[in-house]
Structure formats: structure tokens, C-alpha cells
Input
Amino acid sequence: QVQLVESGGGLVQAGGSLRLSCAASGSIFRVNAMGWYRRAPGKQRELVASITSGTSTNYADSVKGRFTISRDNAKNTVYLQMNSLKPEDTAVYYCYANIATDTYSKAYWGQGTQVTVSS
Output
């Protein structure tokens, strides 16, 4: 009954920008931490950025100064603004959200969106 739907991936040249969005919908009581992971071919999943319900943020060292995570609590949506993109940012990006319903709390995941940065 809870879904996370991502949008905004695509193909961009190195140095370009993309903005990812992830909207949570369904039987939501409260959305706690939200964030983004990525998985590049042949590599382990990596936490890119996270944001608490109080809007404290955390970033992977590899994206600090280039990516910005934000959220709109009224829309249950998290965003990832990605600037100065590099070929090594190419990956499938997955959003997550720790969501409380009226009966339990768990982590939910988006379907993933491909980001490809060409050199």
C-alpha cells in the first residue's frame, strides 16, 4: 500500500546536471529518513545521500559539493540535485524512505532510475 516512484534519470554529458525525484504515496502516517543509493556495474551499492525528517543531511565523500539532497514533507518527496556530473556517477539510483503506517514502520524502495554520464 506504500509506493515510491522515482523520476528524472537519463543521459547527460560530463559536467551536466540532473534532478532526481522520488514521491511516496499510500497509507502513510509519517515519513522519517529518506535518501538515495546507487549501484554501478560491477560495484557494491553505495549510499549517496540521506536526509532526516528534521532535514539533517549526509553525503558520500564522492558527491560532496556536487549533489544536494532535499525533501518536501508536504508532498512526501525527496529530491537529489546532481551537478558537475562525472562518468563515474553512472549508476542505477534507488531512493528509499523509512515510512510509518498505522501499524508498522519499515524501509521502502523505489524502482530505480538509470543515470548515465558520458565523457
